[in-house]
Design goal:
Elements: E1 2-5, E2 18-20, H1 23-30, E3 36-38, H2 41-72, E4 76-81, E5 88-93, H3 95-106, E6 115-116, E7 121-123, E8 125-134, E9 137-147
Parallel strand pairs: 4-9
Antiparallel strand pairs: 1-2, 1-3, 5-7, 6-8, 8-9
Length: about 150
């Protein structure tokens, strides 16, 4: 019997796959636990429509990530920070502070988890950071850390 899996089933396949299983296994295990539905025309149509919707959503999210990466190219985020003698900062500039400054200065919402810092920013200067925006889209972000007045 051909069935469409509604959830991942160990030994059978992943969610959304069309698999062939024995009649008893389908009737006695998969159907009662809502792990699968019969592969009739109606359910096949639903599966195809769902796949199209998921692909369209992924394409839209990728396009949005590329647009944000394009906006990040010309942006320089200025972050004021307090420092002691020798130009060393009190603490470090975190991804959260960079994300908040990006939101307040330019209105771009980038999650702090998407901003990649190789090492913490602990001194004044200009830094170039990567933003992994998802769907293999990487944007470059320029950050200037200056003395707070």
């Amino acid at each position: 019997m051909k069935v469409i899996l509604q959830q991942d089933v160990k030994g059978q396949g992943k969610r959304g796959q069309l698999v062939t299983v024995s009649d008893g296994y389908a009737r006695n295990f998969l159907f009662p636990k809502n792990l699968a539905v019969p592969a009739n025309a109606d359910n096949m149509n639903k599966m195809v429509m769902h796949d199209k919707a998921v692909k369209a959503q992924m394409a839209a999210e990728k396009a949005e990530a590329e647009a944000v990466a394009e906006k990040l190219k010309g942006i320089v985020v200025k972050i004021p920070a307090k420092a002691g003698t020798g130009g060393r900062l009190f603490g470090a500039v975190t991804s959260k502070e960079i994300a908040e400054a990006l939101q307040s200065q330019f209105g771009l919402a980038v999650a702090k988890s998407k901003i990649v810092q190789e090492e913490p920013i602990k001194s004044f200067g200009t830094y170039q950071l990567k933003c992994k925006l998802g769907y293999e889209v990487v944007g470059k972000l320029n950050v200037v850390v200056s003395e707070e007045k």
